[in-house]
Amino acid sequence: MIRSFHIGPLVVLLAGVAAAGQLNVSVSKSVVGVDEVFFIQVTAQGGGVSDPKVPDSDDFDIDVQSPSLSTSRSVQIINGHVSSTLKSTWRYRASAKRKGKFTLPPITVRIDGKVETSRDIVITVKDTAPLQPRAAGRRSAPGASRRHDNPRERKQLTVDDIVMIESFVDKNEVYQGERLLLTWRFWLLDARRFGASRPDGRPSVEGFYEGPVENTQYAQSRDGYDYRVYEWRQALYATGSGDYAIGPWQWNGVVEYPDPQTGFLASVRRSYRTPHIEVKVRPLPKRPEDFTGAVGTFTLRSSLLDNVVTQGVPTTLIVRVVGEGNPDAIGAPVMPALPWGHVSDAETEYKSSDEESEWSVEKAFIYRITPREAGALTIPPIRFVYFSPEKEAYITLETEAREVFVEPSDENADLVIVGDSAPREEHSVHILGQDVLAIVKESGDLSARGSEVPLNTALVLLPPVFFAGLYTWRRKRKRLAEDSVYARRHFARAVATKCLHNMDKAEEPVAEMHRAVRQYLADVLGAARAGLSSQDADRLLADQGIPDELRATFVKVLRACERGRYGGAALSEVEVEALRNAVLTAIDGVERIVPKEGR
Amino acid sequence: MTPILLAALLLGANAFDDVFLKANEAYEAGRYAEAATDYERIVAGDVANPVVFYNLGNAYYRQGRLGEAVANYERALRLRPGFTAARDNLEQALRASKRALPRPLPPAWERSLLAWHYGLSYRLAWTLGVLSWLLMWGLLAVRLWWPLRFLRRGAAVMAVLAVAFSSSAWIKAHPPMLAVVVDETVPVRFGKSDAEKVRFELYAGDRVSVDQRDAQWSRVSTVSGERGWARNDQLILVGPPYELPALNGVQAGGEPSA
Description:
By secondary structure, chain A is α+β, with helices and mostly antiparallel strands. Chain A has 7 helices and 31 strands. The interface between A and B is large, with 53 and 63 residues.
């Protein structure tokens, strides 16, 4: 039985059910366009399930290599009997090859040892409808032509216009070693809801020496539509002569677009391929003896780092070759032999040059020249021979001659130059046994070296630490001398405690205690000592935020002293001692509250 | 307890003295290999003494091992730049080599900026640096009581001297890696492989600077700036740390002393 309904592109439309629900085959669309992608879903359920067998079809392309697979297993226990069922679902990507009405080939799956076959599923294949892209809203690149606003100026857009590829070279006939610029581009319609798989791979360039690949992307208009262009460029250099071919570039992928009939997103598989590119490579004419191997267009520069040196001390000569050509084929310029010095092998370094053009390179040859002789010496011109394809001839460039002023060395009469060949004499122990001075028999201290780190650390850190302490102490002394309020507060406790401890020796201990307490409070609170009554003290202590308990102690002591001194109420020794202890305790309390640095 | 400790200390101090005497006797008797082994035993005991290196250089020289001789004379001179005998013997060893390849030069900026420090030993430079440092703080401390202008200037001068001498000491404590060729002929290659092309050759006693080194290969530069890769087992590092061939390549020492 065939049933069809249409809810959306991913909804199962048709189902071919076999063997009482054990095998179920369905497709995502019953009506598709040519090359439009749809999906075939195969679900098999049983104790043991094999992979489906999908036969080849003349009407459909079915991707049987990489279906998506999901499985689940359920376990049932009925009356103590345990059974398990495996459910597997495969999802195949497929597309129709041509217009018409076609039946999907039967799909078979082995379930619990029995081969189950799907029922027929009929797919209707129609022509792909013309597309109506909407602009993506991006701006075109500068210089690119604008999009045609009048639809009559545009050609009718088809699926094959969503993606285009091309590859080409800047010339089809070159000399061996001459630069050939290969470009390959991927054009993608730059409109909302249109998309495609990104390209990979590249044209094959066998037989060519390859430069680095440059990758850019930009917007460009074509046939009235905006496209995003992904472009790759590569410099190629033919390694031999003859007829060469650059291979095709192929793109296989899926194109997505809004279906003009349903409005839903549809996808089509496409494959494009660029043609071969024929390149004729001509051999170079007969090469001169000092040809460096460079082919292209070049300039030559040289610089000498030091033109005044000492005999035996090397100077550096840098010869730079700048131009367009294969940097790895540029050989070292011909360095003439110097009778007065040694020239080292050239060290080379090269980089992209930003001076000439985007394909320009700079290769530097670095020579170290060590003069053996003193005086005004000359480095003769250095020649660089390359082949110019433009002029079809070998060109010789020369640097300027360079003057070097070499001052005589008083150190080495026999200068040794590293790269020079040394005389290969044989030495013997007998010869070596001569001439060295005798050993020294007084060794001095032979004790093992201890770690010097602690001592060194102490020597470095102690002086600034000591200075910081000295500076702090000195500053404090200065403040004590200059700031009387600070000084009174600083010494208040010491003075009061001393007085209280010595009051027994005084003629009037109560008067002495009274004086000591008043002085302490005056010093701590920054008040005048004279005339400080118990009332004043209470107020000042309250201003300082001294707790009530401490305040009460001071007031009590001061009042007792005032009574003892002025009221004629003599205090017993026990009372005096109790008051003294109370005062000492209260002083400790105040010291903890009132900061010693003053207010 | 104290006499025992004292005796132990004395015995410890005498241990290397005895080895030194024994090495000298072996040398005098012409047993140069034995002398070299004994001198290296002293170095392996973390003793960095210029005289020991000088004698060790002689012991190697007498065996015809120019590379090791040159390396040990260099070690002696690094510890005591004014060691005339070591300088003379180094020159003699270099004359005996195939070519007296000059020692690689420090960078030009260092030669012009620190020309004054090449004659100083590490110990002297460090002592002068510490003295300048102490004096600077001392002058600043005196200035707390007597704020005289010349004291401030003096402290500034001392600060400059402290930086200069301590920089000198630091550079001497971390000298550029210098190596001496020990094999008769050493190919220096373009890369770290025996298959690489030979760029130039070095000979026993040639001194080269080393700027890169791994387990097998060192990148060496000569005085004329030519550079390439040589095998480690064909070179001896001047150090520290000190490679000791007679003790089968044992390494000793870190920071310089003496």
